[in-house]
Design goal:
- It is built from 9 helices and 2 strands.
- It is globular, with a radius of gyration of 19 Å.
- Helix 1 (3-16) crosses helix 3 (39-51), helix 5 runs antiparallel to helix 8 and helix 8 (174-196) runs antiparallel to helix 9 (199-238).
- It is an all-alpha fold and 239 residues long.
- The chain folds into 2 domains: 3-65, Arc Repressor Mutant, subunit A; 70-220, Four Helix Bundle (Hemerythrin (Met), subunit A) (Up-down Bundle).
- A two-stranded antiparallel sheet has the order 1-2.
- The N and C termini lie far apart (41 Å).
Length: 239
């Protein structure tokens, strides 16, 4: 796992967990010191976060945390589910080429290997995210519908809409690994539907797949709420 991936995952997690306030400036040097990294991977991560709609650049080029609501995230994830459902249906109905079958099988095998680790490490999370992105990209690329592909690209610019943006990286509890195992089983079922040419089933599975992201979002917000309730108590005790 590259240092940039580590930095990106950590910054994304901090934004979701509420450690940065909306509108707060993210200074490269301060972040680099906090993360124990140089400014280069931090700068690259901020560029990615801007593309994902989590930060925005002001008129001076400084990055600020973008304000977003839970409803915005829920809607964006739902839209991605419907778009990817359409893509999966097209692939199944067109017939899945042998080369694509091989590529998808290799990706699934990699996911199986990664999820065999218990507990998951930060490296496992990052590698699974790459695998997950690759699985979704292969299906989208194979659908042959450029308008649909552009629609997904536009939607991916909304907060936590991309395929791997809502992986359960807000903690290392056993429940996180359980969600990932469940999501990966869905990958296998979707692959089976694609091979069988079952367009309606493939569409349904791809759409349903985003429910895992929805559940992760609710879990993350619950954790955030619990943290916000604890912090005032800590300040009272310390004060």
């Amino acid at each position: 796992m590259s240092l940039q991936e580590t930095v990106l995952m950590q910054l994304r997690d901090w934004i979701l967990s509420g450690q940065f306030e909306p509108g707060q400036r993210l200074a490269e040097q301060q972040l680099a010191e906090r993360l124990g990294a140089s400014r280069t991977p931090v700068r690259a991560a901020l560029v990615t976060l801007e593309q994902e709609g989590l930060v925005e650049a002001n008129e001076t080029g400084k990055y600020l945390v973008r304000q977003f609501t839970a409803q915005e995230v829920v809607v964006a994830i739902a839209v991605r589910g419907h778009l990817e459902g359409m893509a999966a249906r097209l692939v199944a109905e067109h017939g899945i080429p042998r080369a694509l079958q091989n590529d998808l099988q290799a990706v699934l095998d990699e996911g199986d290997r990664l999820l065999a680790d218990d507990p998951l490490t930060l490296e496992s999370y990052a590698a699974y995210a790459r695998m997950n992105d690759r699985f979704h990209e292969l299906i989208l690329q194979a659908c042959g519908n450029r308008a649909l592909q552009r629609a997904v690209a536009v939607n991916d610019k909304l907060p936590f809409a991309p395929a791997s943006a809502m992986l359960p990286m807000q903690g290392t509890v056993a429940m996180d690994r359980d969600w990932m195992l469940y999501a990966h089983r869905q990958h296998h079922m979707l692959f089976d539907a694609l091979k069988r040419g079952e367009g309606a089933r493939a569409q349904s599975l791809a759409t349903e797949h985003t429910q895992v992201a929805q559940m992760n979002m609710r879990l993350a917000l619950e954790r955030r709420s619990e943290s916000e309730q604890v912090m005032p108590l800590m300040r009272l005790v310390v004060g």
